[in-house]
Fold this sequence. Notes:
Layout: H1 2-13, E1 18-24, H2 29-38, E2 45-52, H3 61-65, E3 69-72, H4 78-90
Parallel strand pairs: 1-2, 2-3
Amino acid sequence: MVQKKFSLIAKLIGLKKLKTAVFISGAGSNLQNLIKFSLFKKAPIKITFILSDKKKAKGLRFSNEYKIESKIYNFQNKLEAENKILNDLKK
């Protein structure tokens, strides 16, 4: 089943990996699985950015371990945070 989904994605995007950002707020177990998956040669994604709303999120350790850029956003002003995130994702 996973192989069929991968084949479909590969057909849609070709051989070039999609740059992917991941939002985390806790331990980062989903992030860790995505990173491991992205390291496969035929994986259609490459994790290039990690976003968090908590500076003590344990999942941020993966940014250092795998040398992935990360940034913490303050969501006190939701509109301002969303604009900052969009600007960072454009880079």
